[in-house]
Each structure stands twice: as structure tokens, then as C-alpha cells.
Amino acid sequence: MTDAGLRYDWTVDEVEALFAKPFMDLIFEAQTVHRANFDPNKIQISRLISIKTGSCPEDCSYCPQSAHYATGLEKEKLMAVEEVVESARKAKEEGASRFCMGAAWRGPKGEDFEVAVAMIEGVKALGMETCATFGLLDKFQANRLKEAGLDYYNHNVDTSPEHYKEVITTRTFQDRLDTLDVVRDAGLHVCSGGIVGLGEGRTDRAKMLLTLANMPKHPDSVPINLLIPIAGTPLADAERPDSFDFIRTIAVARIIMPKSFVRLSAGREGMTEEMQALCFLAGANSIFCGEKLLTAKNAKPGQDKSLFGRLGLKPM
Are strands 292-293 and 296-297 parallel, antiparallel or unpaired? Predict the structure, then answer.
């Protein structure tokens, strides 16, 4: 135990015991931890756009951007720098403080990488926090992104090490951990989380969170996504997880990573407002705004503003 009581030695049994707690007790504990580390009535707001869409060589079984599946997704080439910066400017006007850029790459290469670097420099010049998710990175690329002004790099572990091979075969779980290592070593903030609804069990969810909590440093941001089943992907007919199981995942993430931002990410468009409110009560304190998350629908800004008003929540 170091860093003012933060733990990096959680066991599977301990994390599963949290999942097994009576729901009310778990939520109370998570909210208590949340209040000890954050203003409970403030939410960090980010905007996410796809700077390059489709034709990804990876076979992530949940992703419509994979070249392995026929999902009807319209492929788009890398956006122009000016177009991305203008999108960031609009996002800032609508209350976003962080701008996240995603590209359907196995990893950035050649001239495309330098264009992405220019995008980061342009968004940073607006005074926004910057985040990118470009796939696998090497040491040089991570350092170059840091020099350009990148604040956060997102690379999710997705699920447990054991269940991972059921979801993705074109890159290993260790590949993901290696990228997170070079990102951390470059001095970038780590954004890493997972997806609920990939056919995993409770133990898999516990081990996914355990992987994150036992890293050398807790991720600064932990996105928890609810699978959006996409026609044409292998998980198109996946059973929707129980809502309370999803909320439990948020709560456990908050308890074992108390100082991390826990982001209520993909899947909000299909959640009731009451479910979202319970997620905030369980310790989620970050969302994506805007009607689109890369290629998937998201809750509309007007809906978020209305919900925030009724809950007394304010943007950070």
C-alpha cells in the first residue's frame, strides 16, 4: 500500500467479495469513497470523435470498424487537421473540457501519425485536455505524442486475461499491457477500462478491474462501457447484462481505484436516466457528450443538460 493508502495488491477473492455485497451496501461504500476523493456533484465531460473510420485489421468481435465483418459501416479516410480542430472548438463551446480522438488503426504509421500529431497540437492550442486512442504504440510514438501536448492515451484491456481470447485474436492481452507500459513511461496519463456484455462472467469483470487496479499506477481514467451490439459483428446477438451488474462494476471500480476518474462510456444512449443516476451515485464522474461515440449513438447533449439539471450535477 503506497500513495496515500492506494492499493496495488488486490486479490481476485477480495474484488469478487465486493461484487457479492448487498447492492445498497456496495453503493454506500462506493459513494463514501467517491466523496472522500471528488466533488460528488461535478462531472468531467469529454467529446470523442473518429478521425479515421473503418478498415481496421483487428478482429475485435464487438467492433463495427473491423475489416473482418460486414456491418455496413461507411469507411472514412483520415480527417483534415483543420476539421478536427474546428470540431474541438465546437465541443469546447458546448461544455467539453477534454477532446478525444480515435482512429481505426492497429497502430499509427508514417505520415498518418504525423497528421495525428498535428491534430493534437491544434486541439491543445485551444486550451483543452487532449486524449487519443490510436491502437498499439511503441516508445518513440508515445514520447512524440507527449511532446505534441497529448494528455491522455486510451487503450482498454476490454475484459479479463482469460476471456480476452474469446473476444480478440489479432492482438494479445500482453500487447495491450505493453502499450500501456510505454504510455505510462512517456509520462502520459493512462486511460484504460473495459466492456461489460462480452459474454463474460462476474469473475471476468473482477479480473478486468483487478488488472487495472494492480498496475504500477492506477489509470487516471477508467472507462466502463456497456456493449452496444452491432449487426454483422459476432456479438450482434449478445445478451444484455443485468443493469445492476453493470452498476456494480462501476461501484467496484470506484472502490478499488478511488482517485481515478470512472467514466460512464459507451451504452448510455440505451440507458434510462434512472440507471445513469445510479451509476453516478456508484462513483462514475465522467461522461462523453455529443450524439456520436466514434460510430455508435450517444445520449444527446440536450438530454444530458436536462438530466444534470434535475440531479444538480455540474461540469468540471
Answer: antiparallel
Catalytic residue among 263, 268, 279, 289: 263
What are residue 290's phi and psi, to 5 degrees? 105, 155
The pTM (predicted TM-score) of the whole model is 0.89
What per-residue string of b and e applies to 196-223 under the rule 16 or more CB within 10 Å gives b? bbbbbeebbbbbbbbbbbebeebbbbbb
Active site residue 47: no
Can you give the length of the chain in residues? 316
**7 a catalytic residue:** no
263 is known as an active-site residue: yes
Active site residue 100: yes
Q: What is the pLDDT of residues 33-45, one digit of tens each?
A: 999 999 999 998 8
Catalytic residue among 47, 60, 98, 248: 60
Instruction: Say whether 289 is catalytic.
Output: no
Catalytic residue chosen out of the listed positions 47, 144, 184, 191: 191
Q: How far apart are CA 48 and CA 77, in angstroms?
A: 17
**273-281 vs 23-37: helix axis angle to the nearest 10?**
60
Q: What is the pLDDT of residues 117-132, one digit of tens each?
A: 999 999 999 999 899 9
